[in-house]
Design a protein that fits this description.
Blueprint: E1 5-6, E2 10-13, E3 16-19, E4 28-29, H1 30-46, E5 49-58, H2 67-84, E6 90-96, E7 104-112, H3 120-134, E8 137-147, H4 151-161, E9 180-182
Antiparallel strand pairs: 1-4, 2-3, 5-7, 5-8, 6-7, 6-9
Helix pairs in contact: 2-3
């Protein structure tokens, strides 16, 4: 994706204007804003309610790559899909490093809001898996249950998630290591995710 920096209060995506956490003192990267919005839009096409949960991950030691995030994602997705009988899980993460010696990650997970309303079990799994993988710590941010068509709730969640798109702290990594990643298969098609009978 093209890396563009904006300082606007609103960001236009797919002919829809979203209020974002940006102003003349605080910029945002559009290459990160796009998947944050696109996955939300795709899930709202698929489900009448979407559960969105943001959390942060800290490490004890610096790593040159993001392999630990891939491990967490694989193991966490497996637990979620088996426990909640879900076919689709959306995920966005960003890597940042500022004054601390090791990097940290901000993460967002998107789930079928018809099957989950509170992230308690997901919190427990993230904490357990992250401790096993690297001995790191987890911090919980807000979660949202967003109904399809509720523009106030949709705008509120995009504003909250847009914090991940700030440029500060990014780029402190080897050239071959990414600043962010997302479940690309979720947004690979403009069509809604495959729908199962009776899930709307």
């Amino acid at each position: 994706m093209t890396r563009t920096i904006i300082n606007n209060e609103y960001y236009l995506r797919h002919r829809k204007s979203y209020r974002v956490n940006s102003d003349k003192w605080r910029a945002l990267r559009t290459d990160i804003l796009k998947p944050l919005i696109d996955i939300c839009e795709t899930f709202l096409l698929r489900y009448c309610r979407v559960h969105i949960f943001r959390f942060d991950l800290h490490l004890r030691q610096y790593t040159d790559d993001n392999r630990i995030i891939s491990i967490l994602q694989r193991r966490l997705f497996k637990r979620i899909k088996v426990s909640y009988k879900m076919k689709n899980v959306g995920f966005v993460w960003v890597r940042e490093k500022e004054k601390a010696k090791s990097q940290h990650y901000h993460c967002v997970i998107y789930l079928d809001g018809n099957k989950i309303r509170h992230p308690g079990s997901v919190q427990r799994w993230v904490n357990e898996l992250w401790s096993q993988i690297c001995g790191g710590t987890c911090y919980w941010s807000r979660y949202h249950n967003v109904p399809r068509g509720d523009e106030i709730a949709i705008q509120k969640v995009i504003y909250h998630l847009s914090y991940l798109a700030k440029p500060r702290g990014k780029g402190q990594r080897p050239l071959q290591t990414k600043d962010y990643g997302w479940t690309r298969s979720i947004c690979a098609s403009k069509r809604p995710l495959s729908n199962a009978k009776g899930e709307e």
